[in-house]
Design brief:
- The structure is a homotetramer of 342-residue chains.
- Chain A has 342 residues and is α/β, with parallel strands linked by helices.
- The first copy, chain A, folds into two domains: 62 residues, 2-Layer Sandwich (Alpha-Beta Plaits), CATH 3.30.70.1140; 264 residues, Aldolase class I (TIM Barrel).
- Chain A contains eleven helices and 14 strands.
- In chain A, the strands form three sheets. An eight-stranded parallel beta barrel of chain A has the order 7-8-9-10-11-12-13-14, surrounded by seven helices.
- In chain A, helix 3 links the parallel strand 7 and strand 8.
- The relative contact order of chain A is 0.12.
């Protein structure tokens, strides 16, 4: 920990800080500059809140040297994490390598026929992962229902019929088990990024976990949540940027493209992006999808629907079939230009 | 729903919007202005996402006339909601009336002695509600443990020994039952503001629920979450502002004092504020507490500790005993000046 | 400057940083922790951008020890700055002392009669400073016109007729001279907080300068702008918080009440608040005015108008006469409760 | 204007709104829904602030139908604006067409030799526009000096020696004339986006104006500022996204890639992006440059320097020579993949 004393801090104030640090088992090094005295403290930083020192008289700033996440940090695996999925019908997919991985599917499930048409469409666009949301809860949250075995089985069948792996959302610690039984990847949505019981349950699962960033989470908070999953024993976490909340109102959220190269520097985990949910409108989403790929995303999530304008809710963010297939072509050509495959 | 067409929108584009509205069972009123055509649509607005129209060609803007929350809206109870607690040793407390209610307690529980000293201190400052956090999870999230019957019993004893009601945090739907058994008020923390299974469970409980706003939640999102609790049958929800995330970095969060009068206009539910958690530092928190009261808060949450500078984590936001008692005096005098009691 | 190397930084990377620091005339102290190597560097920090080190390989973080502002810092005048105005008809006013100073006036000038009615109203409410905006520029910016001698003379007459000092806005370096001739205080609006030529011109003026924070400025940026005025020779700068831009939409901006105690800690300059412009709506502004005073503001700016609902633009944020006088009463009683006068 | 009355608004309240609208020369259409009464009002919307209605009793929401900018709106020129520059040595450049235009140069000028080396480097990377900043003001704002004829002449010579046009920053209305004499494009920096006297002066100039978005400006505010330039007679405005202020701290600002497609929809003006200033660090800027191009930017601004790590200030955001040339190659290949040239 590094503590910078204010200009004009008294000797007494400095001593009080040193004493407190020593009482907390830190070794303290003091360096007296022309203007500021700076204290470097080595000790149990992970247990001490730097804010505790900020409120002491005479203290100007206090920084913790250690990041609050360890396992998710780049230094823990400098070469990067690659996550492999393999299946008989699905073949092999690797997340975190040179291939860009496409995940696609409908925002919500309306029925079996729609589900299979969505899956066929997703596969035609090159998706390797299929994601079918539940009936989502924005407009009428009470109607949100957790996953049941029947619908999971159906989704799995839709996915594997077209050679894709299934991604299933988990919203409660209790239901991780049933989702894990049918889905190949577990998705923790942005509303649950700090649902600690759920993160721990996902950490005990044997499936890779796609962890979506909450709309106001810092990169550090996202990585602390990832750490919790890693810490519980699951080494396969995929980070996903899906838009941050800003003062802008043209789109639902503001896709934080900067997070993609930043997370690659801070962490060894693969990074995906969700341009459809970030934009909330299908006329803007394709530009964001191309941007996220250009910025270095390892994969993309896209909402697709055979006829999104007929959907009552969550349709605005879903791509139309032609639009999706055209975007897939552009993504392929962009990936090639960047020396990656798709 | 109101749809404003772009300047220069073609007749075809207008017709397409009208047709879609009619297909969704809306009655449409068209008014053609000098520059813009405006469509007013009456129908099942709660089922339709206005964004779906924003992406149609020729559409400039689309507004939903109805708020997505109903039960929490001021119109549902124009006179305001008052929540009463009564106990043998605790007497009576009313939230939402002219008296300002103080809730206080330690950020985390370190042991029985500390707990009782905190409770005594809280009561001396005039607190009617006692809140004792668990060991919180910022620095080392894995150490967060759920509530167990023993510690709840202990907390309840500490609270009632000094004539206060107990507030207990719930973090999982499963554990609402056990908390409800011992605590008088259930607290849903800001990280769980959109944990829908938990909200529904709290809605089925027979205790008032204190619902904390997430640091990037809009007022509307907070009220949608409150609606979900009300909708499940629990009429007693207390809203709590605890700081929003901005670009500022001097304090942990930025207390959104504006939210207090705004929530009073939008909703009939009582509104509390949590200045300690918002500031994250005890040198700034008292000014925010006074500000929140002046802005019309029905109650305040304060973190207190007999010796906060000795605490390893979460201490920086806890008030010192003298500071707390002095603040309580100022709050009392401020309340009187505003024609309220304390 | 303090530079923290990443876990796993190589000796070469550390050496490169040290070499660069030495080349920039820093003295470097190296301390090697169990996990991180930390370099403390004493030297010409004010000339060096810490970001330059952040991009070097192996560097995790870099902090500058010095604040980028000096003269505005609390340490430069620990006892605080008090700004005195004295006039024959106006009496004496002191900003930064125990008295709360009220500044009031119309958002825009519509004519001589309205101006005098506004001034009378302001004075009845206890205002010591009168502020009359020009015709403001939000809705039709082209109509903004600079100050001319005639209207300044008129405003001055309105102010002094009712025993108040005049506050006049400056928008161009060139027109500082003419405003200074008639007004007692110069106002630099939030849109000009970083208009450097204007700040320098205000710094050469012999009148106190009220400097409004831009809606997305950090406290540090505000203080750097204040420094520029102080540096040009003008010792009398008043800081003014007027709302920051957040994702909230119920009010025009979000009044950052936290900034008031924070600026008092960081700086010796008086701090005012502008709740009307922050809220943009007169039904919310009074609660914010009370909150700002409770948080420790040295003064308040209020927009008043004899009949604001008749105003085409900028009327929504102006208080109605009765509302203003009632608020003034509440502010007086609040100030007394806090041990201050008004 | 559209006004939505609250559920439960009284007939009196509705009448008061109608009366006020009629008094302001609006024609009012009333439609009474099951829950809400909605008033559509056609009239002088551009003169009336919708907030004035929001504060009336019984009003829930009020929307203005017209955008506050007209000339910059897409509808004013649906085919899009193309801005052409032509010179003997520089050839022809078109902004807003299929070719991606590169603008490059040093963040600050250190001397003649550095200037020419930067220009040579910029030209090698394919830049058609050369931009040389003054000594910038972040760290020591007092040192910012306006442009003088000598340095402008020098910059112009550097630009044209290598076949590029010169971009010169204007910071005061008074100095627009001299910059215009030597530079081919005028740049209005983000700190001056709402410096109205400067915008009007730029609007009277005969050179295209590159208008940078302020770090907290909405798209609407940017377009209002553009309107002011267009309105003063200058038809050639180029919009530039350069990062918005968010709670993120890894980079200086957060590049708002979404703004690029959004501005293309809202406006006919060309849109550039400034990834170096947004990121503030050269290790992240290239990923953002690629993302901005993929999102549809008409051009890019890049900071380059022959040896940025030697620069005391503003160096961290400048690309190193090899990095710049490599990025130029990637941009070229990306542009080709997207069916554009470079």
């Amino acid at each position: 920990m590094i503590i910078i004393m204010e200009k004009g801090a008294t000797e007494e104030q400095i001593e009080a800080v040193i004493e407190k640090l020593i009482g907390l088992d830190f070794n303290v090094h003091r360096s007296t500059g022309a203007v500021h005295t700076v204290l470097g403290a080595v000790g149990p930083s992970e247990l001490v809140d730097p804010d505790e020192f900020k409120v002491m008289p005479g203290v100007m700033e206090c920084y913790r040297v250690m990041t609050p996440y360890q396992r998710a940090a780049r230094a823990a695996r400098p070469e990067g994490t690659r996550i492999r999925l393999a299946g008989e019908r699905e073949g092999e997919v690797e997340l975190g390598g040179t291939r860009v991985v496409l995940m696609a599917g409908p925002g919500s499930v309306e029925g079996e026929e729609q589900l299979f048409r969505c899956a066929e469409l997703a596969a035609r666009g090159g998706a390797k992962l299929f994601r079918a949301g539940g009936l989502r809860a924005h407009l009428s949250p009470a109607s949100l229902t957790g996953p049941d075995a029947d619908s999971l089985r159906l989704m799995k069948r839709a996915a594997s019929t077209f050679g894709m792996f299934l991604v299933g959302e988990v919203v409660e610690a209790d239901s991780v088990g049933i989702v894990e039984e049918h889905a190949d990847v577990l998705l923790v949505g942005s509303r649950n990024m700090q649902n600690y019981p759920l993160l721990r349950a996902a950490g005990r699962a044997r499936r890779p976990v796609l962890l979506k960033r909450a709309p106001a989470a810092t990169l550090q908070e996202l990585l602390v949540s990832a750490d919790m999953i890693l810490d519980a024993g699951n080494p396969d976490v995929i980070l996903c940027e899906r838009g941050v909340r800003t003062y802008g109102s043209y789109t639902k959220n503001t896709l934080d493209v900067t997070a993609i190269p930043a997370l690659h520097k801070l962490s060894h985990l693969p990074v995906m992006a969700d341009p459809c949910r970030a934009a909330g409108r299908r006329d803007i989403a394709p530009a964001l999808a191309l941007a996220a790929l250009a910025a270095g995303a390892d994969g993309l999530l896209l909402d697709v629907h055979p006829d999104p304008s007929k959907v009552l809710a969550e349709g605005a963010q879903s791509l139309e079939p032609e639009q999706f297939l055209e975007l897939a072509r552009q993504l392929r050509s962009l990936a090639a230009a960047l020396g990656r495959s798709f």
